[in-house]
Amino acid sequence: MSHNTIEINRAMDRFDGHHSVWLFGYGSLIYKADFPYLERRPASIAGWTRRFWQGSHDHRGTPEAPGRVATIVPAAGAICHGMAYLVTPEEFTHLDHREKNGYLRLAIDIRFDGGGTEEGLVYIARHDNAAYLGEAPELEIARHIARAQGPSGPNAEYLLRLAQALRDMGHVDEHVFAIEDYLAGLDDGGLPRPA
Ligand code: SIN
What we know:
Keywords: Lyase, Transferase. The protein is an alpha+beta fold. It is built from six helices and seven strands, in the order αβαββαββαββαα.
């Protein structure tokens, strides 16, 4: 599959005719909501786990030196915590552009932390997309993140902001926190030092 998923996502008609749609965010969509929303609620999806296995050519890296960002992979019994946003369908023009580097919209059951479930959408970067990097030891992922940067800024910032947002919501993600720990132990840590 090509890197750019805009056309495939635009053709998805699962929620056509709906006045609003729930979107589940598990990566930068947790801490960077650069779109208007009607409502925002902490939530989770069952049977998925967050992994820094997706390459980023357009936000936290470049085509020549991709960064590493989050996707979700199936995992029996796992719960992936994140943030759900109720948005109008027009927002998907911006969201499809933002998530264009390999992410596909997938219909999914979203469970709200306060109770209740709604079917909504999540953007997932599957293993068959051209930007996928796949599994690697967490130390190697930390080293990769420490040296990558792209138009949206240092790759380390993505990881650190996500880890902090999860912590603020009271969640532990062992994969994310392990990478964060390794990053802290590296010489440069991936973020520019103050002058
Ligand atoms: C998400 O946050 O739900 C998708 C991945 C990303 O944009 O970081």
